[in-house]
Design goal:
6-stranded mixed beta sheet; 16 strands
Length: 549
């Protein structure tokens, strides 16, 4: 074999290069891959799911190497880099294809991460790709040929056939070529693909990832390969019934992270396999990513509760996905990040696409970008709802703009500022005027919040003890009280001291309605010209949010 020109070392730096190149390749191919997505569900999201999974993996890798880049940490090892890359994919895996990609990366990490050399040879990379394919097949309850799994297996065989003298770059090239050849054969292996005249969408994404690996190791860019589109328009039901899949299968996709033992996951696989299809469970060492298609999403989540602790639960109705994929884009949409299920319902009724922010789990840029796409509009106003999400919102907006969507980020710092912005939203007016009006409404709204101190701490209002009620105004602790009513009164007095015409109260799930009635009466008595509106924030909401306009 003639040796590949250029660098051959597979080390931590090469993993970072691979990560960035794979993300860029999937970004370029995302829409084309979405367009050929016909199996297992024609929901036009395989390219998007692979991209979001790769983005989560890249973000985790960058965070793990941040200290190295800044010179505050020792040089990164290959083991640390591949493990961070695989863990990020596991945490952020989206859809069937993204979940399988996460397991492929885990298989690679299991082999490369166990080698003490700090850089991988060609034979070691071949073993890693073989382990990856084996792990992916094991993760899928009922493997089907002509899919991403077939492409992964072919890549592994080609890598092993490269020989013991091959460099890592040569092994990567062999795997890439083997994957491309296998991908071309998928329409003849899977009737759904042959009927539509397309190759497998997930396999197409895997070819892009392997091409990026070869490029990272060789310095040579793979030739651009146009994705084959459907020979005829794909049949998509416009109004499926809730219990119909549209392709003789389940109606819902259920995905969640699960903390559970290996034994519990074995039982979970059996339980979920009886509920539906497209079951993929990936991960290990106590943390798993579960993906399944079912007609009863509640039962799928309940099975996770029996097995361990499920979180980051996502339930998607395929009919809704297909309608978005085929429906014309709206002119304008709003995406709002909200800290409560009741607020999500309220904003949804106002026409916004919502992203739920749970305590300690702020949404990443990928989730915000996904929401912008779900808004399915030419123009989108993004309301991040807290200062910590400003960078993620900016990153999501930048990516959406690259996809042709006009996006404006209004720097809302609280959910009540988002409600004020939504109240003046005018989808019929010009985009610039709408953004200016929404920004002005949000900026004119002072925001407060009541929270319960978890431990003794120093605050801007003094020392608080565990169990004290903290009254925050514009993000700073202004009042320390013993109970919700008196603390809320003190916060309202301070906020209304500089004027106001409307008070918005958002109650947490455990706060009684009597508190709202008490505060409404208090405002009415102390500030005659001020109106009050009250909403329920629902689960995950703070005890009380206050807005003054």
């Amino acid at each position: 074999m003639a040796h590949e020109p250029g660098p051959h070392t597979l080390d931590a730096d090469a993993v970072r290069t691979w990560s960035s190149l794979a993300l860029a390749a999937l970004g370029r191919a995302r829409e084309d891959i979405d367009a050929i997505n016909v199996y297992p569900v024609a929901d036009a999201d395989t390219g998007t799911n692979l991209y979001l999974t790769a983005e989560a993996a890249a973000r985790a890798l960058d965070e793990s190497l941040a200290g190295v880049t800044e010179g505050t940490a020792p040089p990164a090892t290959l083991a640390a880099a591949v493990r961070a890359y695989a863990h990020g994919a596991l945490i952020g895996a989206r859809g069937n294809s993204g979940t399988i990609l996460a397991q492929l990366l885990r298989g690679v990490a299991d082999v490369l991460g166990a080698d003490p050399a700090g850089r991988a040879s060609g034979p070691l990379l071949a073993r890693a790709l073989t382990r990856a394919a084996e792990e992916a097949y094991r993760a899928v309850a009922h493997p089907v040929e002509g899919t991403m799994l077939t492409v992964a297996a072919a890549a592994a065989r080609a890598a092993a056939a490269a020989g013991t003298a091959a460099t890592a770059a040569e092994v990567a090239r062999a795997a890439y070529d083997g994957a491309r050849a296998a991908l071309a054969e998928t329409p003849g292996q899977l009737p759904a693909l042959g009927k539509a005249g397309v190759v497998d969408a997930g396999g197409c994404g895997l070819v892009a990832v392997l091409g990026a690996l070869w490029q990272a190791l060789s310095g040579r860019e793979p030739a651009a390969e146009p994705v084959r589109g459907p020979a005829v328009p794909l049949p998509v039901p416009l109004d499926p019934e809730p219990c119909e899949h549209g392709q003789d299968g389940p109606a819902y996709e259920v995905v969640y992270l699960l903390e559970a033992s290996d034994e519990a996951v074995d039982a979970l696989r059996t339980a979920l396999d009886a509920l539906g299809d497209s079951l993929v469970v990936v991960g290990g060492d106590g943390l798993w990513n579960v993906h399944v298609h079912v007609d009863d999403p509640g039962a799928a989540v309940e099975a996770g509760v029996v097995a361990g602790r499920p979180h980051r639960i996502r339930i998607t109705h395929f009919g809704d996905q297909r309608r978005r994929a085929t429906a014309p884009r709206a002119q304008r949409g709003v995406v709002a990040v909200v800290p409560g299920e009741g607020l999500a319902t309220l904003c949804g009724e106002a026409g916004a696409t919502t992203v739920l922010a749970r305590p300690g789990e702020q949404p990443a840029a990928a989730e915000l970008l996904d929401a912008v796409r779900r808004a399915h509009a030419r123009e989108v106003v993004l309301l991040p709802g807290c200062p910590e999400l400003r960078a993620a919102a900016a990153a999501a907006a930048e990516q959406a703009r690259a996809e042709g969507v006009r996006v404006a980020v209004i720097p809302t710092r609280s959910a009540v500022q988002g409600l004020a912005a939504l109240a003046v939203h005018d989808p019929e007016g010009s985009f610039d005027e709408d953004v200016v009006a929404m920004t002005a409404a949000a900026g004119a709204t002072r925001y407060g919040e009541l929270a319960v101190a978890e431990r003794q701490s120093f605050t801007s209002a003094g020392i608080c003890q565990a169990g004290d009620v903290l009254g925050l105004i514009d993000g700073d602790v202004a009042v320390i009280g013993a109970g919700l009513p008196e603390t809320a009164e003190a916060v309202l007095d301070r906020m209304l001291g500089s004027g106001g015409e409307l008070v918005t109260l958002v109650l947490g799930p455990e706060v009684p309605d009597t508190l709202a009635a008490h505060l409404e009466a208090y405002v009415q008595h102390a500030h005659l010209a001020v109106d009050t509106v009250t909403y329920r924030g629902g689960r995950y909401c703070a005890p009380l949010l206050i807005g003054v306009e």
